[in-house]
Amino acid sequence: MLRISKNRALLMSGLLLAVAVPASLPAPAIAQSAQADARLERIETQLRALQRSVFPGGDQRFFEPEITPQGQVAPPVNTGVGTTALTDVLARLDALESQLARLTAATEVNENALRAVEARLTAMESSAPAPAGQPAPAIGAAPFPAPISAPLSNAQPTPRPSGVITPPSTPAPAPVASGPTAERLAGVSAILKPQTADAGDDEYTYGFRLWTAGFYPEAQQQLALFLERYPRHSRVSFGRNLLGRAYLDAGDARTAATHFFENYQSNKQADRAPDSLLFLADSMVQLNDTRRACIALAEFGETYPALATGRLKAQYDALTARIDCA
């Protein structure tokens, strides 16, 4: 009986001691717990504010406004040492700080994406097309040489003219002609287009056949199509020269002169560059521009002396006989 009484007294003493320990915690521990609570409240307030900024309206379809149990730090493993309320607060603080860092990173990503979108919109607005009232530049149209400013003249030329050949002025657009007749359509249809392995040469040859048959408008259209589709073909010089001749034979000397000048200026060593220079002089004669005709003839005699006494001698002599450049 005495031993049982002693054991019961020791048990009661231990229980009283266990109850008295929390009440006797030192003041620094209590102050640290109060600071942790204040820190926790501040972080929770900041987190809610950040959530409202990143996800306006707090729609549950897009985010969870509160930290879920899965996002919280797992409770510490029981290692035999009892946990206190302070360690629980610290665990909550770690979870909140981790969540706050993720939300901050998401905010920065969204801001960068918005800046990129604004930059693209600014670039698109700066490169917007001109208003409807302004004419747009023609696509695929080859620029003609700048028009000359000197008027046509019949004045006597100076002996042995020299200088740079200037292109003729750009012709005014021709009036729109009426549709072709049935007879003309039948005549054009009768001209066969060759079909060989060289499609570019076929296009040029078809234009040549139209010009030979006297269908000058159709030849002009076909040769222009050839030059547009095959700008690097070996027949380009032939095509430009023949296009000028198609206009010259149709009575449009001014437009013909622009094509002759372009063919000569683009490559003076091309196959039909000397021919175009002589036809340019012929065009100037028909336009009563004797001065430029003499300049073209002088240029031809200096640049192509062998052709002036060879293949093109007859044409060169005929032109020099028509005008007086002495």
The coarse overall form would be rod-shaped
The overall pLDDT average reads 74
User: Largest sheet, if any?
Assistant: none
Tell me the total number of β-strands: 0
| CATH architectural arrangement of the domain at 186-322 | Alpha Horseshoe
Oligomer class: single chain
Secondary-structure element pattern, one letter each: HHHHHHHHHHHH
Counted by DSSP, the helix tally is 12
Distance between the termini: 159 Å
**CATH fold descriptor of the domain at 186-322:** Serine Threonine Protein Phosphatase 5, Tetratricopeptide repeat
Low-confidence stretches: 1-8, 14-24, 132-162
Q: What does this molecule look like?
A:
The chain has helices at residues 2-23, 27-54, 85-126, 182-189, 199-212, 216-229, 236-249, 253-266, 273-286, 290-303, 305-308, 313-322. Among the domains are: 29-74 and 86-116; 186-322, Serine Threonine Protein Phosphatase 5, Tetratricopeptide repeat. The radius of gyration is 48 Å and the shape is rod-shaped. It has 326 residues and is an all-alpha fold.
